[in-house]
Amino acid sequence: MKKLAPSELVLNPDGSVYHLKLKPEHIGQKIIVVGDPGRVALISSYFDTIECKISNREFVTHTGMYNGERVSAIATGIGTDNIDIVLNELDALVNIDLESRTVKTELTSLEIVRIGTCGAMQKDLPVDSFVMSQYGFGMDGLLNFYQFTPDKEEETLLHELMLQTAYSPKITKPYLVKGSSKLIEKLGEGIAKGITATAPGFYGPQGRVLRLALNDGQLNDKFTAFQSEENRVVNFEMETSALYGLSKLLGHEACTLCVIVANRLANEFSKDYHPAMTKLIQLVLARLTSKG
């Protein structure tokens, strides 16, 4: 079995993975990821017990018990580049023997739920409500570095989305990945669902104009107008496409739920989204650990 070189699987002197600074015993099989490091403590405040708190750079991890299940809350920081780090290192923790530096013969599948904030692209999705990402539309290009083959459903929807929006190759070569059907069913009751456009930035990539002109100033309007059967683009955020793509390739279940903090059509921003975020965290913890 091929041994992974120290330059490829980078470990700290204590044997923990390089960026997350975690060892296999530090994480549960159910993981909640958030962008904001400060949000980890809010999540773990609802744990019945907390086993460990570990931080390195923007990567903060709290692991404990909730409703009889071992759960980890991990801050990824912002962007798909950080998701690349977090997903690969989480997978290494459960599917690579870090001592022998070899891939295990029996692989473990994690359940990974992202709780985030986003901007809505439809008028009927008000600020402080929730939205679930059924698909991630990747404008970031990360998955193009990996050998990813979309299934027929993903391929067809991507083609239709690019056709209707006249998506320009000047921007990026996009991709589209479906989230975990298992987690969408388990967590999604009563929550609006649709396609999430994952952008590689907050300003221009999401159609915001301050002092710089855009390559396609009508792209947001095209996203809002897109319709393919029941599918529509519901929101912008900055992590989901990479989370879905890498999870699918590595054999993990992944799902994103966001609090809408801005409605781009109504030009509204939440006056205080923190109560809605607290409610979403409680909902995800309850549904993720439910035995039903």
TrEMBL record:
Catalyzed reactions: uridine + phosphate = alpha-D-ribose 1-phosphate + uracil
Superkingdom as given in the UniProt entry: Bacteria
EC class name: transferase
Enzyme Commission no: 2.4.2.3
Domain Nucleoside phosphorylase, first and last residues per copy: 31-285
SUPFAM superfamilies assigned to the protein according to its UniProt record, in alphabetical order: Purine and uridine phosphorylases
Secretion signal, residue range per the UniProt entry: none
GO BP term, pick one: purine nucleoside catabolic process
Molecular function via GO: purine-nucleoside phosphorylase activity; uridine phosphorylase activity
Name recorded for this polypeptide: Uridine phosphorylase
GO terms under cellular component: cytosol
